[in-house]
Amino acid sequence: MSEEDDNFWDDLDLDLASSKGEDFQEDEEKDEEQNLIHDNEEFRVISSNSTFLLGNFLTDYQLTSLSDVETQNPNDISRIPQFESEILRLLSQKTDELSPLLSQLNELSVYAQREVTVLHSYMKLLYKDKFLELEDLIPSPLPYANVVCILEEQEGGAHLNLASALENEAGLGKEQILVLMMSTKTSFKQDVRIQMERRSFLFEARALIQALLRIQDRINDFVTLRVPLAAPNVCALVSPNIASLLISHVGGIQELSQIPSCNLASIGKNKHLSHEFHTNIAGVRQEGFIYRCPLIQQQPMQYHKQMLRMVCAKVSLAARVDAGMQNDTKDDSFGNKWAQEISEKIQKLQDTTAIRNVKPLPIPEDAPKKKRAGRRFRKYKQQFQLSQLRQLQNRVEFGKQEQTITNSFGEEIGLGMTKAGFYAISGSSAGGTGVTKGNTNNSAKYSKAMKKRIEEANEQSNDYLISLEDRI
Predict the structure, then answer these.
(1) CA–CA distance, 365 with 347 (Å, rounded to integer)
(2) Helix, coil or strand: residue 70
(3) Closest Cα partner for 289 from 265, 259, 322?
(4) What whole-number distance in Å separates Cα of residue 166 and Cα of residue 171?
């Protein structure tokens, strides 16, 4: 064989090897595509199964009542933490069916909140014999559970260690710790011993409360990312975070749309402590979820109360718009419009009112007035002259003591010559009578219509008196 033949066969072997490599890569790519399709199908099946199981759980869910505390186990009261891993796995998945999942998660969040309330009541029933005042000092569920467990763990320990544990583990403030330490010296019954079974129930109840709150936080985070698709106008008005808290608390956008605006401010409000004031500096008592929205917090403190009332009214309208909106139309124009209107109203209130120009009084003329006489001018001046009795009151008779009276304000007023002048005006003395016409220039003036009405009233009264005399 020649060298040319050898080169030809070598090139042929290389071409065959490269074609086999390309075929092998194509086969690998096809296998990867099939694996991805298979994984996606399995993912969809798992997601749909998880949603289906969650729906069945919510349908069959019944809240346990505290019928018998002595023998009841906390795990029998709360069932949601038993499915914590499945719920967290469902929240970590991606699904296309967003609307039914959001409604199920909102309903689950409501049930979780109810279980937290029931567990809180359960712990108060178990611990009231030992520290009854604690439920008034710490009204929130998780801090109450933490304080109970700390008191049981450090029973008989030093107060210094107890104070540090309350601050670090329970997250209490210095004021709460001070009030609690003072209450432990008076209301805490150290001689009362809790049974070991009840003590274990208290720790289990705290773990369940922590698990329920952890599930609620994950649900709120999940809903916060996807709530703009379900309630765009509410999100545009109060931010997605506040909207997710509202929807999770009430159970859905339909339920939120049915709540009147006057009740929206109290949603998410913390219970007041027995030693705290119920009103903040701005005069707001209902510090719920809506009060924490940026639209209110960005304004000065003196406008918070008015802003809260306006935002609640618009949130009620926005929820109704979102509840009646189709799934394929997600428009937040109403929410942006109402937020702009509220901002403009507050801006007008903050603007200082323009100072009006005070018009000065005209300079008085020193020259004598043009009108000094004439019949009309004399008649005009007679309206302001003193009456005869007032003139007599300003005079005092020589050599005689003036008579005085005391008015309703305790001031002594002199009568002057009014008594003697009265007889002179009337033309009467001690034994005579007479009538003299007094000054009527400054008397009250009546219009013609008023005079006519008075005359008609007098005639009617006279006719009535005459009719009575005839009957008699």
Answers:
(1) 47
(2) coil
(3) 265
(4) 6
Q: Which residues pair with 405 in a beta bridge?
A: 413
Q: Which DSSP helix (H) or strand (E) runs through 163?
A: helix 159-168
3-state secondary structure of 404: strand
Residue with tokens 């712990």: 123
Tell whether the torsion through CA atoms of 451, 454, 460 and 464 is positive or negative: negative
From CA 136, how far away is CA 170, in angstroms rounded?
16
Helix (H) or strand (E) holding 406: strand 404-406
Domains contained in the chain, CATH given:
245-349 (1.10.246.90)
Distance, in Å, from the CA atom of 158 to the CA atom of 315, rounded to the nearest integer, reads 51
pTM: 0.54
Is 160 strand, coil or helix?
helix
pLDDT tens readout for residues 318-365: 999 988 886 656 788 899 999 999 999 888 887 765 566 778 888 887
- Which secondary-structure segment (H or E) carries 71? none
Sign of CA dihedral 43, 46, 49, 50: negative
Q: What are residue 369's phi and psi, to 5 degrees?
A: -70, 150
Q: What are phi and psi of 48, to 5 degrees?
A: -65, -40
Nearest Cα to Cα of residue 291 among 319, 310, 318, 317:
310
Q: Which residue has the tokens 């903040």?
A: 280
